[in-house]
Write a structure and sequence with these properties.
single chain, 265 residues, alpha/beta, Rossmann fold, 7-stranded parallel β-sheet, two-stranded parallel sheet, 9 helices, 44% helix, globular
Length: 265
Amino acid sequence: MSYLNGKIAWVTGASSGIGKAICEGLAEAGATVVLSSRNQSQLEEVKKGLANSEKHFILPLDLEHAETFDGKVNEVIQKLGRIDYLFNNGGLSQRSEASETSLEVDRRIMEINYFGNIALAKAILPHFQKQQSGHFVITSSIAGKFGFYLRSAYAASKHALHGFYEALALEEAKNNIHVTISCPGKINTPISTNALTENGEKHGVMDHNQATGMSAEKCVSILLKAVGKKKREVMIGNKEILAVYLKRFLPMSLFWKIIKNQKAT
């Protein structure tokens, strides 16, 4: 991971799960990390555990409040001089059937997972363009490759990220700006605990799929290797990521016959 040594990397969703593991991996590789999420006390705990903890920077941020992003970007640049990587990892999952989910919940998931995500990228993009370098690293999901039970709005938000960042990568290649989209499968994180139900409440349950999934640390090890190779997309997980390739190569009727028998949680 020597490519990260001395770099400035901003991580959203840094207080737990994959985001916390990203911060740990970046710090271990010698990067200076900007840690962002809504929960400042959790960010403080994460920062304390990082290698060279004194050099990292906590910047609370709420992905539902895009109007604050220009100021946040300026704050990072004034303090650290530049931004080399944005690990746009923050977001919410869902555990509810589409027919029972309020439109408010659909809108909130899209606001955080899609609009908040791309708004922060757009706030940083002029800085990347000016310095003629930069790398967006986006946490999507295998749900960004196909829809699945109890995740209609979540899958929609992740599908949308692929469309936006695939276009952005083509447009900004001339400015030496790169995009890597990661598609994790079952990773052992609190994502299911914090997922929204049909009425916007927390699911509050660690799903079996998460509890038995790949560790966040192994997930991030795979991710950072892919970022170093400037891969456009990387699938991360165990046997569940085979579904992405089955969709690509199998007849659709057979693919959906297989998927419908998979457990939702």
